Amino acid sequence: MDITGSVVQYGDKKVIQGIFRNVREREIFEQMIIESRLKFRTLLDSIHDCVSLHDTNCEIKMANSFLAELMNLPVRDLIGKKCEDVYHCKIMAETCPVLNVRNSRRMEFSEMTIDGRIFQVWAYPM
């Protein structure tokens, strides 16, 4: 139960106003969100390919542990970085799959050579 109270003016009298809310439903939904995030993280980390989610500015918002291991960084250090800084590639609007997806809103495929390694990159709009 969430209880709040305040003194309010009601005509020429001061009265106490109380609001009582049952927060059990909110707690259930919050627990469902926590469990859903945990399941998603487990699924993401079970993929043995590099997976990262980017915003429209090419900033990494989420990454899996396989990518972190390959880049020799903890996952938390990948978050917030531009993909070009993590993948050590030069982003050019005509070849960057993330930028192409942002513009086309369709799946994009490309092959990129980064630090002498060849990557097949699939980018999907979300």
Structure description:
The chain has 126 residues and is α+β, with helices and mostly antiparallel strands. It contains 5 helices and 6 strands. It has a two-stranded antiparallel ribbon with strand order 1-2. Strands 3-4 form a two-stranded antiparallel sheet. A two-stranded antiparallel ribbon has the order 5-6. The longest helix is centred in the N-terminal third of the chain and has 23 residues, at 24-46. The mean pLDDT is 87.
Query: What topology, given as strand order, has the largest sheet?
Result: 1-2
Rg over C-alpha atoms, rounded to the nearest angstrom: 23 Å
Sheet with the most strands, sense and barrel status: 2 strands, antiparallel
Separation, N- and C-terminal Cα atoms: 37 Å
Low-confidence stretches: none
- The succession of helices and strands, N to C, reads EEHEEHHHHEE
Number of strands: 6
Structural class designation = alpha+beta
Average of pLDDT: 87
- The count of helical stretches stands at 5
Strand content: 25-35%
How does the SSE layout of this entry go?
Elements: E1 2-10, E2 13-21, H1 24-46, E3 52-54, E4 60-63, H2 65-71, H3 75-78, H4 83-87, H5 97-104, E5 108-114, E6 117-123
Antiparallel strand pairs: 1-2, 3-4, 5-6
